[in-house]
Amino acid sequence: EIKEAVELPLTHPELYEDIGIRPPKGVILYGEPGTGKTLLAKAVANSTSATFLRVVGSELIQKYLGDGPKLVRELFRVADELSPSIVFIDEIDAVGTKRYDAHSGGEREIQRTMLELLNQLDGFDSRGDVKVILATNRIESLDPALLRPGRIDRKIEFPLPDIKTRRRIFQIHTSKMTLADDVNLEEFVMTKDEFSGADIKAICTEAGLLALRERRMKVTHADFKKAKEKVMFKKKEGVPEGLYM
Hints:
Blueprint: H1 2-11, H2 13-19, E1 26-31, H3 37-48, E2 51-56, H4 67-81, E3 85-90, H5 105-123, E4 130-136, H6 144-147, E5 154-158, H7 163-174, H8 186-189, H9 197-213, H10 221-237
Parallel strand pairs: 1-4, 1-5, 2-3, 3-4
Helix pairs in contact: 1-2, 1-3, 4-5, 7-9, 9-10
Pfam family, one: AAA
Subcellular location: Cytoplasm; Nucleus
InterPro entries: 26S_Proteasome_ATPase, AAA+_ATPase, AAA_lid_3, ATPase_AAA_core, ATPase_AAA_CS, P-loop_NTPase
């Protein structure tokens, strides 16, 4: 879906012209943290050789009133100037939540920033060389106006990995590790705990660090068990997964 919405319009716009349809302006990626939304956005940019402009939603909410809308305008101005380009706004829920009666200056600033974003999405041609990718962990909190057709035309869910995908992710992240004979990765693949791809990467990294701290060349099953406990504890405590990314 992201190939149809972002990659093909930038690399082969004539396909849409030949069939007589307008390509989507952009997509929103949604799902649990650590499921690969940011990685996919970067991969699409690399596959198209487009300029990749990434901002985090909270960065658009500035200390001084009026800065948020200005930043949004500047972001799209630069995207147009450097086109073909992809505008990637991560954690869009920081500015794109459902509108309500704003009481504080900060709340009003969020709403003004959101309105400017809607204006920018309305203001550029879907046949142009600028595409928009939004990402969120909380799609249910977003303002429906942001997701209406003609602004963001595709919603792509990123679920947590199933057992087959878990197994593959563990294989990828342990492929260059020296594992002891007692390591049984299937125990972690089949666990009832909910792992994201980032969680699995973090477990493998932490297991390797445990062996390294004890000057051991092989990573044991016990290392993986301790690593899993540590990663899951940090996840419950809200420690950012980016620590391992």
